[in-house]
Amino acid sequence: MIEAGFWTAALLLGYVYLGYPALIWIWARLRPRPVFGRDWQPSVSVLVAAHNEGPRIAAKIENLLGLDYPTDRLEILIGSDGSTDDTVARAQAFESPTLRVFAFPECRGKPAVLNDLVRTARGEVLVMADVRQIFDETALRALVRPLADPAVGVVSGELVLSGPEAGTAVTQGIGVYWSYEKGIRRSESLVDSTVGVTGAIYAVRRALFRPLPEDTLLDDVLLPVWVTRQGYRVLFEPGALAFDRAAATSAEELTRKVRTIAGTFQLFVRERWLLHPRTNRLWLQALSHKGLRLLAPALLAIAALTSVALASRPFYATALGFQVLFYALALAGALAGPTRVRLLDVPFTFCLLNWATVLALVTLRRGHQGVTWRKAAA
User: Fold this and answer.
1) Residue 249 buriedness (CB in 10 A; 0-12 / 13-18 / 19+)
2) DSSP state, residue 142
């Protein structure tokens, strides 16, 4: 039984992090599904929910007003979610017929603001955006082009992370992880649909939008899976770029990932049809890309404990040695602080993300993961 536990954990971990990415990559190359996109200019409503974003809201609005898209086909809706600073005043200072600003007095969270903005939006296509990220000038054209295909319901843009050249272990490690993650999404998109999109830049047909439960933690996963259940595709469009900076510290990245992973736990608890092959055509993608990753901390613990129990045998002693070395490198990365050693980037980030999974489960079970705004950094 102990030996079976080791091999079960090891094989599942290997499949989650290596096997599935390889499988979906090969599938995408052998059986890509075409997209019949064209240069299309539907009416677009860009929706931005903001809470106490006074220092950044002007730059965001300037960025959106400067996009290469016909102004008579574009509207920008800013929803202030109970801001107590000068977010509303700074937004209202812009005199543009393209812009509308809504000052909601109570802080309710992003889903409630999006629901209210959608009710007043006029566009055929809704584009969801956050304040922090800046769009490339041509991002909107690239984002809506695949929606010319009537089989496509949601399109995700590509988030490009930047950081100092001599970044910390977490900065560089997250960069590696994000490149890996985008590769999986690109392959899933070629096969059929990607599971989840980039919350900083994605588009959805207004006709397919359903009001979000106000305690939803991840609108950028829940909306896309609802759309796929209606029979539409969810695509990743690498030509639609948004720019952000990578987390500067491990604490900042941990805060972000705990919220994101808590949202994934919430998704599977509420949308249980995702794990049934008969009701979810993307069952393999949902299970492999999202579901099994939630089990990774438990699988890592099983692999370690069974290796200890079997350490009297040479193979398992070697396996234990590799695990000890890997975790030692991760610990060294944590202790290195702002000093970066390239060898430590991936072990440290891998362990940070799995620790975030543990914390996400704990905070969600205790009811401590709220939907209202909690910034990781200014």
Assistant:
1) middle
2) H
Residue 335's pLDDT band, with cuts at 50, 70 and 90, is: confident
For the chain, where are the alpha helices, taking DSSP H only? 2-14, 20-30, 54-65, 87-92, 110-120, 139-144, 169-191, 219-229, 250-270, 283-285, 296-309, 314-336, 345-365
Side chain identity at residue 123, one-letter code: G
User: What percentage of the chain's residues is helix, strand, coil (to nearest 5)?
Assistant: 55, 15, 30
In which residue are the tokens 């994934």 written?
Answer: 264
Inside any domain, residue 205 = yes
Report if residue 280 sits inside a domain. Answer: no
**Single-letter residue type at 353:** L
Percent of all residues in the chain with a pLDDT value above 90, rounded to a whole number = 81
Domain that holds residue 154: 44-245
Torsion angle in degrees (nearest 10) through CA of 370, 371, 373, 374: 40
pLDDT, residue 245, reads: 83
